[in-house]
Amino acid sequence: MSAISIENLTKTYRGKRGAKVDALKELTLEIEAGEVFGFLGPNGAGKSTAIKTLMGLISPTSGSATILGKDITTPDARRSVGFLPENPSFYDYLSAEEYLVFVGKTFAMSGPELKEKTASVLNRLDLWEARKRPMRSYSKGMVQRVGIAQVLVHDPDVYILDEPMSGLDPLGRTLVKEIIKELRERGKTVFFSTHITADVELICDRVGILVAGALQTVRPVQEILAAGVVGYQVKAKDIPQELFSYYNADSQAEWLSVPKADLGPVMARLQAAGSTVELVEPQRKDLEAFFLDIVAHSQA
Ligand SMILES: Nc1ncnc2c1ncn2[C@@H]1O[C@H](COP(=O)(O)OP(=O)(O)O)[C@@H](O)[C@H]1O
Ligand SMILES: [Mg+2]
């Protein structure tokens, strides 16, 4: 069974004077249990619309979805979900600790279990020192970290996170990435949106790219990175003269710049000439380039 199954989900907003906005167009997507899925798209692509629909905060114009087999129109679907909204804001007269206790109680937690879990989550998100201060005194990054903390308290199996790294400094971003990696190691399912490719590269199993409400592609991240290899830098000793044309203008001696298709023949000639190959480094077109390419060529 898929963790999240989305079928032809469509949302048309009715704007001012009857103007229509097709924010989400026939989104069909399966998120496997145990995978980390990056939902990548530029601002205004429809990511938050999709996530709010999954969470039952807005109703779709058409289409359907299930979470762990349960229809999103039923409250049951959200019982095993940790949800981070975009721009989270909390009852800011509460402290982070009071808020996490409140969240735990809504999920029927209590006693030592709740106390321990709250303490460990506050520590993990670097909120321990500030735990007793009202959240109105928190910085934007601290509020975002409370947002992450509150999804972890009840230890759900599925995480739906809208831009979890937004508003965080580099340390905070790294922390959230580590937490997502830990969730994957524990077999949890994470579906998160972002408009930043670097957030996806190191932690996602698959990425889906949404542009103007339409899903353009869904690919394993490793596959994109492997397909992005455009050539190789080859370091070798005693390079035969016939390969000198592969020296590029600014390379030091011993380094050849070899296009992808030439690698086989070049390696064969190095071997035949008795050269010692010391290093072969792939040169990639990265995920950012792939993403920009998709956005530029999307037919939305
Ligand atoms: N309540 C709303 N009423 C009208 N249009 C909306 C509403 N919410 C979002 N939109 C529009 O829908 C599109 C998708 O928005 P959103 O889902 O927030 O994108 P993302 O999260 O990818 O930045 C945008 O064009 C946005 O302006
Ligand atoms: Mg958004």
Labels describing this entry:
alpha/beta, binds adenosine-5'-diphosphate, 30% strand, 300 residues, 31% helix, Rossmann fold, 2 domains, six-stranded mixed sheet, binds magnesium ion
Topology record:
Elements: E1 2-14, E2 20-32, E3 36-40, H1 47-54, E4 62-67, E5 70-71, E6 81-84, H2 96-106, H3 111-124, H4 140-152, E7 158-162, H5 170-185, E8 189-194, H6 198-201, E9 206-211, E10 214-220, H7 221-227, E11 229-237, E12 255-259, H8 263-272, E13 276-284, H9 287-297
Parallel strand pairs: 3-8, 3-9, 6-7, 7-8
Antiparallel strand pairs: 1-2, 1-4, 4-5, 9-10, 11-12, 11-13
Helix pairs in contact: 2-3
Bound molecules: adenosine-5'-diphosphate and magnesium ion.
The site of adenosine-5'-diphosphate has 12 residues, from strand 2 and helix 1.
Detailed description of the structure:
The chain has 300 residues and is of the alpha/beta class. It folds into two domains: 2-225, Rossmann fold; 229-284, no CATH class. The chain is built from nine helices and 13 strands. The chain has helices at 47-54, 96-106, 111-124, 140-152, 170-185, 198-201, 221-227, 263-272, 287-297; strands at 2-14, 20-32, 36-40, 62-67, 70-71, 81-84, 158-162, 189-194, 206-211, 214-220, 229-237, 255-259, 276-284. The strands form three sheets. The protein has a six-stranded mixed beta sheet, sandwiched between helices. Strands 2-1-4-5 form a four-stranded antiparallel beta sheet, covered by helices on one side. A three-stranded antiparallel beta sheet has the order 12-11-13. Strand 7, helix 5 (170-185) and strand 8 form a beta-alpha-beta unit. The longest helix has 16 residues, at 170-185. The chain is globular, with a radius of gyration of 24 Å. The mean pLDDT is 93. The structure holds adenosine-5'-diphosphate and magnesium ion. Magnesium ion is lined by residues 47-48, 86, 162.
